[in-house]
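PT: before anyone asks, these are the final sequences, not the draft ones from last week. 248 residues across everything. Please model them as a single complex and drop the result in this thread when it's through.
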Amino acid sequence: MPEFLYNNKLYYNPVEFAMDRIGGTWKMPILWRLKDQVMRYGELKKDIPHITHKMLTSQLRELEEEGFVKRKVYAVVPPKVEYSITPRGQKAIVLIEAIRNYGLHLMKDFGIDESKVRQQKKNS
Amino acid sequence: MPEFLYNNKLYYNPVEFAMDRIGGTWKMPILWRLKDQVMRYGELKKDIPHITHKMLTSQLRELEEEGFVKRKVYAVVPPKVEYSITPRGQKAIVLIEAIRNYGLHLMKDFGIDESKVRQQKKNS
DNA sequence: CTGGATCCGATTTGATACTG
DNA sequence: CAGTATCAAATCGGATCCAG
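LR: through. Structure below.
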Protein backbone atom coordinates (compact mmCIF):
# COMPACT_ATOMS: atom_id res chain seq x y z
CA MET A 1 0.00 0.00 0.00
CA PRO A 2 1.20 3.48 -0.79
CA GLU A 3 1.78 6.05 1.85
CA PHE A 4 1.72 9.79 1.53
CA LEU A 5 1.68 13.06 3.38
CA TYR A 6 -1.23 15.46 3.72
CA ASN A 7 -1.14 18.45 6.03
CA ASN A 8 2.06 17.14 7.57
CA LYS A 9 0.39 13.93 8.57
CA LEU A 10 1.45 10.56 7.25
CA TYR A 11 -1.28 8.34 5.79
CA TYR A 12 -0.82 4.68 5.07
CA ASN A 13 -3.74 4.03 2.76
CA PRO A 14 -6.83 5.61 1.17
CA VAL A 15 -9.10 4.22 3.87
CA GLU A 16 -7.22 6.07 6.56
CA PHE A 17 -7.28 9.25 4.52
CA ALA A 18 -11.02 9.04 4.02
CA MET A 19 -11.72 8.31 7.66
CA ASP A 20 -9.60 11.23 8.74
CA ARG A 21 -11.76 13.52 6.62
CA ILE A 22 -15.22 12.29 7.55
CA GLY A 23 -14.62 9.87 10.42
CA GLY A 24 -14.77 10.38 14.14
CA THR A 25 -17.89 10.39 16.25
CA TRP A 26 -19.56 13.49 14.89
CA LYS A 27 -18.69 14.33 11.29
CA MET A 28 -21.00 11.82 9.65
CA PRO A 29 -23.95 12.69 11.87
CA ILE A 30 -23.42 16.34 10.97
CA LEU A 31 -23.15 15.69 7.23
CA TRP A 32 -26.13 13.37 7.40
CA ARG A 33 -28.36 16.12 8.75
CA LEU A 34 -27.20 18.59 6.13
CA LYS A 35 -27.73 16.21 3.26
CA ASP A 36 -30.99 17.76 2.16
CA GLN A 37 -31.41 20.90 4.20
CA VAL A 38 -29.68 24.04 5.36
CA MET A 39 -29.33 24.27 9.12
CA ARG A 40 -28.30 26.89 11.63
CA TYR A 41 -25.78 26.20 14.34
CA GLY A 42 -28.42 26.01 17.02
CA GLU A 43 -30.56 23.64 15.00
CA LEU A 44 -27.69 21.23 14.57
CA LYS A 45 -26.90 21.53 18.24
CA LYS A 46 -30.46 20.64 19.22
CA ASP A 47 -30.79 17.88 16.66
CA ILE A 48 -27.63 15.95 17.46
CA PRO A 49 -27.99 14.34 20.88
CA HIS A 50 -25.11 14.59 23.33
CA ILE A 51 -22.82 16.65 21.13
CA THR A 52 -21.08 19.40 23.04
CA HIS A 53 -20.57 22.97 21.95
CA LYS A 54 -16.86 22.41 21.56
CA MET A 55 -17.20 19.32 19.41
CA LEU A 56 -19.87 20.78 17.16
CA THR A 57 -17.89 23.92 16.46
CA SER A 58 -14.58 22.16 15.97
CA GLN A 59 -16.04 19.51 13.67
CA LEU A 60 -17.91 22.11 11.65
CA ARG A 61 -14.69 24.08 11.31
CA GLU A 62 -12.83 21.08 9.97
CA LEU A 63 -15.62 20.09 7.60
CA GLU A 64 -15.71 23.65 6.34
CA GLU A 65 -11.94 23.94 5.90
CA GLU A 66 -11.88 20.74 3.90
CA GLY A 67 -14.79 21.70 1.72
CA PHE A 68 -17.52 19.35 2.88
CA VAL A 69 -19.81 22.05 4.23
CA LYS A 70 -20.34 25.71 3.48
CA ARG A 71 -20.76 28.35 6.16
CA LYS A 72 -22.85 31.42 5.51
CA VAL A 73 -22.80 34.26 8.00
CA TYR A 74 -25.57 36.85 8.10
CA ALA A 75 -24.55 40.27 9.36
CA VAL A 76 -27.32 40.56 11.87
CA VAL A 77 -27.70 40.83 15.61
CA PRO A 78 -27.93 38.35 17.13
CA PRO A 79 -25.70 36.38 14.75
CA LYS A 80 -27.22 33.98 12.27
CA VAL A 81 -25.09 31.32 10.63
CA GLU A 82 -26.29 28.71 8.17
CA TYR A 83 -24.52 25.52 7.27
CA SER A 84 -25.10 23.68 4.03
CA ILE A 85 -23.54 20.69 2.31
CA THR A 86 -21.23 21.08 -0.70
CA PRO A 87 -20.90 18.81 -3.75
CA ARG A 88 -17.92 17.21 -2.05
CA GLY A 89 -20.04 16.59 1.00
CA GLN A 90 -22.82 15.11 -1.11
CA LYS A 91 -20.44 12.51 -2.43
CA ALA A 92 -19.68 11.52 1.14
CA ILE A 93 -23.38 10.95 1.77
CA VAL A 94 -23.36 7.98 -0.58
CA LEU A 95 -20.61 6.33 1.44
CA ILE A 96 -22.22 7.20 4.73
CA GLU A 97 -25.34 5.38 3.56
CA ALA A 98 -23.24 2.32 2.78
CA ILE A 99 -21.60 2.42 6.20
CA ARG A 100 -24.96 2.94 7.81
CA ASN A 101 -26.45 -0.07 6.06
CA TYR A 102 -23.47 -2.15 7.05
CA GLY A 103 -23.83 -0.95 10.62
CA LEU A 104 -27.48 -1.97 10.70
CA HIS A 105 -26.56 -5.38 9.35
CA LEU A 106 -23.83 -5.69 11.94
CA MET A 107 -26.20 -4.75 14.73
CA LYS A 108 -28.51 -7.58 13.72
CA ASP A 109 -25.52 -9.89 13.47
CA PHE A 110 -24.62 -8.96 17.03
CA GLY A 111 -28.17 -9.50 18.19
CA ILE A 112 -28.97 -5.87 18.82
CA ASP A 113 -32.70 -5.64 18.34
CA GLU A 114 -33.87 -2.32 16.96
CA SER A 115 -37.17 -2.70 18.74
CA LYS A 116 -35.36 -2.56 22.06
CA VAL A 117 -33.45 0.50 21.10
CA ARG A 118 -36.13 3.01 21.93
CA GLN A 119 -36.63 1.55 25.36
CA GLN A 120 -32.99 1.84 26.24
CA LYS A 121 -33.11 5.46 25.17
CA LYS A 122 -35.07 6.22 28.32
CA ASN A 123 -32.24 5.01 30.47
CA SER A 124 -29.59 7.26 29.00
CA MET B 1 -31.70 8.42 15.34
CA PRO B 2 -31.91 5.59 17.81
CA GLU B 3 -29.35 5.10 20.49
CA PHE B 4 -28.42 1.93 22.28
CA LEU B 5 -25.94 0.28 24.57
CA TYR B 6 -23.39 -2.35 23.65
CA ASN B 7 -20.72 -3.51 26.06
CA ASN B 8 -21.65 -0.69 28.39
CA LYS B 9 -20.93 1.88 25.75
CA LEU B 10 -23.57 4.24 24.39
CA TYR B 11 -23.92 4.42 20.60
CA TYR B 12 -25.86 7.12 18.82
CA ASN B 13 -26.27 5.51 15.40
CA PRO B 14 -25.36 2.46 13.28
CA VAL B 15 -22.44 4.27 11.68
CA GLU B 16 -20.77 4.78 15.02
CA PHE B 17 -21.38 1.16 15.95
CA ALA B 18 -19.80 -0.08 12.74
CA MET B 19 -16.80 2.19 13.04
CA ASP B 20 -16.21 1.07 16.60
CA ARG B 21 -16.00 -2.52 15.38
CA ILE B 22 -13.78 -2.10 12.34
CA GLY B 23 -12.60 1.50 12.52
CA GLY B 24 -9.47 3.00 13.92
CA THR B 25 -6.12 3.17 12.18
CA TRP B 26 -5.32 -0.53 11.99
CA LYS B 27 -8.34 -2.80 11.90
CA MET B 28 -9.19 -2.36 8.24
CA PRO B 29 -5.58 -2.78 7.09
CA ILE B 30 -5.44 -6.01 9.10
CA LEU B 31 -8.72 -7.36 7.72
CA TRP B 32 -7.72 -6.31 4.23
CA ARG B 33 -4.60 -8.46 4.35
CA LEU B 34 -6.50 -11.44 5.66
CA LYS B 35 -9.22 -11.21 3.06
CA ASP B 36 -7.85 -13.99 0.90
CA GLN B 37 -5.04 -15.56 2.87
CA VAL B 38 -4.08 -16.97 6.24
CA MET B 39 -1.23 -15.08 7.87
CA ARG B 40 1.01 -15.56 10.85
CA TYR B 41 1.56 -12.83 13.40
CA GLY B 42 5.04 -12.06 12.11
CA GLU B 43 3.84 -11.85 8.53
CA LEU B 44 1.21 -9.30 9.43
CA LYS B 45 3.75 -7.37 11.43
CA LYS B 46 6.15 -7.21 8.48
CA ASP B 47 3.43 -6.43 5.97
CA ILE B 48 1.78 -3.54 7.76
CA PRO B 49 4.15 -0.56 7.80
CA HIS B 50 4.61 1.37 11.03
CA ILE B 51 2.29 -0.73 13.13
CA THR B 52 3.72 -1.38 16.57
CA HIS B 53 3.77 -4.71 18.32
CA LYS B 54 1.34 -3.47 20.91
CA MET B 55 -1.18 -2.16 18.42
CA LEU B 56 -1.08 -5.26 16.26
CA THR B 57 -1.70 -7.58 19.18
CA SER B 58 -4.39 -5.44 20.76
CA GLN B 59 -6.26 -4.92 17.48
CA LEU B 60 -6.04 -8.63 16.63
CA ARG B 61 -7.43 -9.41 20.07
CA GLU B 62 -10.39 -7.15 19.56
CA LEU B 63 -11.09 -8.42 16.06
CA GLU B 64 -10.94 -11.95 17.38
CA GLU B 65 -13.20 -11.26 20.36
CA GLU B 66 -15.81 -9.73 18.09
CA GLY B 67 -15.66 -12.53 15.57
CA PHE B 68 -14.00 -10.86 12.58
CA VAL B 69 -10.87 -13.00 12.63
CA LYS B 70 -10.02 -16.47 13.85
CA ARG B 71 -6.86 -17.30 15.78
CA LYS B 72 -5.31 -20.71 15.51
CA VAL B 73 -2.44 -21.66 17.81
CA TYR B 74 -0.10 -24.53 17.02
CA ALA B 75 1.44 -26.29 20.00
CA VAL B 76 4.99 -26.10 18.71
CA VAL B 77 8.25 -24.46 19.72
CA PRO B 78 8.80 -21.78 18.69
CA PRO B 79 5.14 -20.74 18.78
CA LYS B 80 3.15 -20.59 15.56
CA VAL B 81 -0.09 -18.64 15.38
CA GLU B 82 -2.21 -18.21 12.28
CA TYR B 83 -4.88 -15.59 11.72
CA SER B 84 -7.69 -15.98 9.23
CA ILE B 85 -10.80 -14.04 8.36
CA THR B 86 -14.27 -15.23 9.36
CA PRO B 87 -17.55 -14.92 7.44
CA ARG B 88 -18.33 -11.86 9.53
CA GLY B 89 -14.99 -10.41 8.55
CA GLN B 90 -15.62 -11.16 4.88
CA LYS B 91 -18.74 -9.07 4.99
CA ALA B 92 -16.67 -6.19 6.27
CA ILE B 93 -14.37 -6.53 3.27
CA VAL B 94 -17.15 -5.38 0.97
CA LEU B 95 -17.53 -2.19 2.94
CA ILE B 96 -13.80 -1.65 3.22
CA GLU B 97 -13.61 -1.76 -0.56
CA ALA B 98 -16.29 0.90 -0.75
CA ILE B 99 -14.45 3.11 1.72
CA ARG B 100 -11.20 2.50 -0.10
CA ASN B 101 -12.70 3.53 -3.43
CA TYR B 102 -14.16 6.61 -1.84
CA GLY B 103 -10.79 7.39 -0.31
CA LEU B 104 -9.07 7.12 -3.68
CA HIS B 105 -11.68 9.41 -5.18
CA LEU B 106 -11.20 11.87 -2.35
CA MET B 107 -7.44 11.85 -2.78
CA LYS B 108 -7.85 12.84 -6.41
CA ASP B 109 -10.35 15.49 -5.37
CA PHE B 110 -7.75 16.87 -2.97
CA GLY B 111 -5.09 16.80 -5.65
CA ILE B 112 -3.07 14.00 -4.15
CA ASP B 113 -1.37 12.41 -7.11
CA GLU B 114 -0.83 8.69 -6.75
CA SER B 115 2.25 8.89 -8.94
CA LYS B 116 3.91 11.08 -6.34
CA VAL B 117 3.08 8.73 -3.56
CA ARG B 118 5.96 6.36 -4.01
CA GLN B 119 8.46 9.18 -4.05
CA GLN B 120 7.26 10.54 -0.76
CA LYS B 121 7.63 7.10 0.71
CA LYS B 122 11.38 7.58 0.64
CA ASN B 123 11.10 10.57 2.92
CA SER B 124 9.19 8.84 5.68
C1' DC C 1 -26.86 33.29 18.90
C1' DT C 2 -22.48 31.78 17.60
C1' DG C 3 -17.87 30.83 18.65
C1' DG C 4 -13.18 31.10 20.55
C1' DA C 5 -9.95 29.98 24.49
C1' DT C 6 -8.45 27.53 28.58
C1' DC C 7 -8.07 24.08 31.97
C1' DC C 8 -7.95 19.42 33.07
C1' DG C 9 -9.19 14.53 33.33
C1' DA C 10 -9.67 10.38 30.43
C1' DT C 11 -8.27 7.64 26.84
C1' DT C 12 -4.97 6.10 23.42
C1' DT C 13 -0.61 4.91 21.85
C1' DG C 14 4.56 4.22 21.62
C1' DA C 15 8.71 2.52 23.70
C1' DT C 16 10.70 -0.70 26.45
C1' DA C 17 11.46 -4.68 29.21
C1' DC C 18 10.22 -9.30 30.27
C1' DT C 19 8.23 -14.35 29.47
C1' DG C 20 7.35 -19.28 27.78
C1' DC D 1 7.91 -16.44 17.59
C1' DA D 2 4.20 -14.63 19.88
C1' DG D 3 2.50 -12.29 23.63
C1' DT D 4 2.06 -9.52 28.21
C1' DA D 5 3.02 -5.62 31.43
C1' DT D 6 4.38 -1.09 32.55
C1' DC D 7 5.31 3.69 32.14
C1' DA D 8 5.28 8.04 29.79
C1' DA D 9 3.82 10.98 25.99
C1' DA D 10 0.34 12.58 23.14
C1' DT D 11 -4.30 13.24 21.92
C1' DC D 12 -9.12 13.85 22.79
C1' DG D 13 -13.08 15.51 24.86
C1' DG D 14 -15.97 17.86 28.46
C1' DA D 15 -16.82 21.82 31.36
C1' DT D 16 -16.44 26.50 31.84
C1' DC D 17 -15.66 31.33 30.97
C1' DC D 18 -15.44 35.27 27.99
C1' DA D 19 -16.72 37.99 23.64
C1' DG D 20 -19.03 40.35 19.51
